[in-house]
Amino acid sequence: MNDAGEPGYNFAYLDESTKRMIRRAILKAIAIPGYQVPFGSREMPLAYGWGTGGIQITAAVIGADDVLKVIDQGADDTTNAVSIRRFFARVAGVETTERTAEASIIQTRHRIPERRLSDGQILVYQVPIPEPLRFIEPRETETRKMHALVEYGAMHVKLYEDVAAHGRITTSYNYPVLVNGRYVMSPSPIPKFDNPKMDMMPALQLFGAGREKRIYAIPPYTPVKSLDFEDHPFSVERSDRPCALCGATDTFLDEIVADDRGGRIFVCSDSDRCGEQRDQVASGDGAAP
Amino acid sequence: MTDLPLLTATSLSYAYGRRMACQDVDLEIWPGEVVAIVGESGSGKSTLLGCLSGRLRPDRGHVAYRDRDGAVLDVWAEPEARRRLLMRTDWGMVHQNPRDGLRLRVSAGGNVGERLMAVGARHYGDIRQAAQAWLERVEIDPARVDDLPLAFSGGMQQRLQIARVLVSNPRLVFMDEPTGGLDVSVQARLLDLIRGLSRDLGLSALVVTHDLAVARLLAHRIVVMRGGGIVEHGLTDRVLDDPHHPYTQLLVSSVLPA
User: Is A246 a catalytic residue?
Assistant: First the structure.
């Protein structure tokens, strides 16, 4: 029990034996990068699809001196991010932050922060569908066998279909990756813009799927390769305009409806990075870091 | 032709509960040879095919396969990974219903290319070219490479399934009633195609059929099954023109004259 949290609740909401079960799954996941480890997912006080997998991982790894940041599509101020951050502030009494650099644990839905993460940080992903082969092979028994026997030809059939229909690989999010040269893994629905950041990332990456009851992980400094064809190599899309707020040209942009007359602007999806950039511009520092 | 069989089955048995579907079957398939298994429904044809093709683990008996290097593998003693690799490279399976053998929501090109990608082909242009070449060989317009199999007729789906199997240059193809469910004119064209391909590629094939005409056209040898056992086997013309076993005589004489 910890006095810091909500009275009547264990530190970080989950009881200690549940946390231990989840930590075991996490350790196994780290030992086999990209392999989906089943775990006994618990009912959490939020709906499936809102991050029940991520929140359980965060609860299992968080300590009293951790600093938590939660983002939803890159932003710190969206509903999902605000409520999960407040949840842990209440049940664990931990310090929270919106600054990527100051956080020790970052729980994320569908983005990787623009700032390069460093050693010692943990990135926790919320995953809706952990099985990358699901749409090709609906039978779970069969997909497990395909993973076990490294039968990943069918994964390229999906990419083939993209090129055949559109002339290029149009999969733009949830783009499948090969982890450590062994397991094909779903990176959760992050834009493929973020895929290169997973490769050799200094931070520990943990993935939790609450409804599907799976945990998987990428240890620090693990090679992560996006699948592609030799004559249609993996590439990320670049925006042809800068962020309307901070002027950055190297970030992932969201389209936002700005008024009632159909006006739209494009702004950084990473709200922390956008703010930093604006501060720098304001203080006369000029160019992007 | 070599003087050693490609596939050798010894005393294969398979039971569904207490019902023996297949009992002490011995069978050899030689390189370049097409063997037909005929018999009434329920005689154990498909069960035997399943045991031989790596899909049904037999209760007793062995299946030995001689691979490209001449080494003999005990198919059911090999690890599953090796067996499945065999099934998608050296072997091929053509199902009676093309829907069982095709991915219906994947284009014709993707269907044909899958086996290539499964063994490591990662060049889109090459895969597509191979797919188109194979569509042409099975008499499908290469311009339809991006159409879904759902948009194809039954006969075209069956030919697409054959292309999908043959693209990986298998040495042994298993066919379960390849012409079942097709109308007679389409059947004739398909048989012609299979015969031509097996001759050109030097394929060995094991064809399960209840249609003696199919066996007559395709097979060098016929195996007649009844009640889970082989009652007669021999060269096609010998078995059909001079059947020895009473059951084979019944089978041959029960074909309606056209």
Answer: yes
Nearest chain B residue to A148 by CA: give it: B81
ipTM at complex level? 0.85
Cα–Cα distance, B193 to B218 (Å, whole number) = 10
**A49 catalytic per annotation:** no
- Candidates A79, A81, A78; CA nearest to A68 is A81
Centroid of chain to Cα B71: 22
pTM above 0.80, yes or no: yes
Please tell me the predicted confidence (pLDDT) of residue A286: 52
Identify residue B243 by its one-letter amino acid code.
P
- Name the strand (E) or helix (H) holding A20: helix A16-31
d(CA B254, CA B227): 18
> What backbone phi and psi angles, to 5 degrees, belong to B14?
-145, 130
Q: Is A256 left (phi over 0), alpha (psi -120 to 50) or beta?
A: beta
Q: Does A161 touch chain B (CB under 8 A)?
A: yes
> A233 in contact with B at a CB cutoff of 8 Å?
no
Which of A149, A151, A231 is facing B124, going by the closest CB pair? A231
Active site residue A243: yes
Tell me chain B's radius of gyration from C-alpha atoms: 18
CA distance B195 to B184: 16
Degrees (nearest 5) of the Cα angle B167, B169, B170? 115
Choose the catalytic residue: A34, A53, A74, A208. A34
Selecting among A53, A74, A208, A268, the annotated active-site residue is A268
Instruction: Write the residue in A157, A163, A232 that is nearest to B117 by C-beta.
Output: A157
Q: By the 8 A CB rule, do B243 and B250 touch?
A: no
Between chain A and chain B, the number of residue pairs with CB atoms below 8 A apart is 55
The number of angstroms, rounded, from the C-alpha of B213 to the middle of its chain's C-alpha atoms is 17
Write the pLDDT tens digit of every residue in A17-68. Answer: 999 999 999 999 999 999 999 999 999 999 998 999 999 999 999 999 999 9
pLDDT tens-digit map of B64-110: 999 888 899 999 999 999 999 999 899 999 999 999 999 998 999 99
Alpha-carbon distance A161 to nearest alpha carbon in chain B (angstroms): 6
